[in-house]
Amino acid sequence: MNPSLFSDTLRRHGLELARGVTSTLQINVGLTCDLACRHCHLEAGPDRVEAMRHETVEAVIACAGRFSFAAIDITGGAPELLPWLPRLVCGLASLTPKLIVRTNLTALTRPESDALPELYRDHGVALTASLPAVNAAQTEAQRGVGVWETSTAMIRRLNGLGYGVAGSGLELDLVSNPTGAFLPAPQAEAEKRFRQDLERRYAISFNHLYTFANAPLGRFRAWLERSGNLDAYLARLEGNFNPCTLPGLMCRSLLSVNWDGFIYDCDFNLAAGLHHGNRQIHIAQLSQLPAAGTPIPVGDHCFACTAGSGFT
After folding, report:
1. Tens of pLDDT, residues 281-301
2. Strands 263-264 and 254-257, sheet pairing
3. 120/137 Cα distance (integer angstroms)
4. Distances (CA, A) of 309 to 26, 54, 108, 233, 296
5. In the list 228, 237, 243, 252, which could disulfide-bond 20, CB 3.0-4.6 Å?
6. At what angle do helices 136-143 and 147-160 cross, to 10 degrees?
């Protein structure tokens, strides 16, 4: 990571990146995943064994009980592969107005996950599902052969439970990341295309689509290096720096907890090993939320969150 490049850019614009009010708790439950997507900044996959232990799960729930979070966001890896996920959902649902689980959809199709969609429904969990594109070729180029059919079938099952259906109160949002070394299409334009194509061709509905640039970290950074695209991609991100994105960046209001219980300012800093406050703090020892104005460690990956419409 090159912190000076991003820091210099902030200084040129007369800006600094510091925390605001902490309102969201994000929980990265581990790096185990049934997929090994090319864009994964965490290098999650079937061969990764790092996973949150039961005592850390309980420490996270206790933390959510000590403080007030407007939203709690469970991510991974694939959260469905954590044996303690039902405990997390049940323990956290009553402690926050909005509990979110991020899913790659395919992990929900495992026999071991069969009861999870109903569990999510019963606890009013909002789902954020990854779907790179509206066609099989692009989706499977990023995620692997067979993923398209599995993913669309699971969305139809979720629609059947009320997810993504108008008036149900059950939120199903989609997230799309580019399949190559380029920036995403404008979000409103992409959402219109996704909605029209998925409804017309597959009778699929959802609430919102979010389009985000890929962070130059982990497996995606390795691919950029192998393909000779790293320098050009970093230059593209830097060239599209948008100072207007800073107030809404997730790192200003989010506290990210790793599978081992240590905290970060966001999931990208977690992947880069940049601890909150530049020191290791365990969630079990957290006695107060980070103060507004606390500086946020940065690196060249921060350009991904500040390019174009940003990553908020």
Report:
1. 999 999 999 999 999 999 999
2. antiparallel
3. 30
4. 22, 38, 30, 17, 20
5. 252
6. 110
Rounded CA-CA distance 101/173 in Å is 11
Whole-angstrom Cα distance, residue 29 to residue 51? 6
- Do residues 30 and 76 touch, judged by C-beta distance below 8 A? yes
Neighbouring C-alpha atoms within 13 Å toward the C-beta of 61: 18
Pairing of strands 126-130, 24-28: unpaired
Sheet hosting strand 126-130, strand order edge to edge: 208-211, 172-176, 126-130, 98-103, 71-75, 24-28, 254-257, 263-264
Distance between CA 268 and CA 306 in Å, rounded? 13
**Tokens found for residue 163:** 């997810």
Question: What gap in Å lies between CA 101 and CA 4, rounded to an integer?
Answer: 34
Please determine, for residue 4, whether its predicted confidence score (pLDDT) is greater than 80: no
**Is residue 111 helix, strand or coil?**
helix
pLDDT of residue 1: 56
Angle (nearest 5°) at CA 73 between 71 and 75 = 175
| Domains of the chain, CATH where assigned | 18-232+245-296 (3.20.20.70)
pTM, two decimals, is 0.95
Are the C-beta atoms of residues 79 and 86 closer than 8 Å to each other? Answer: no
Cβ within 8 Å of residue 282, ≥6 positions away: 59, 261, 262, 263
Tokens of 135: 């066609």
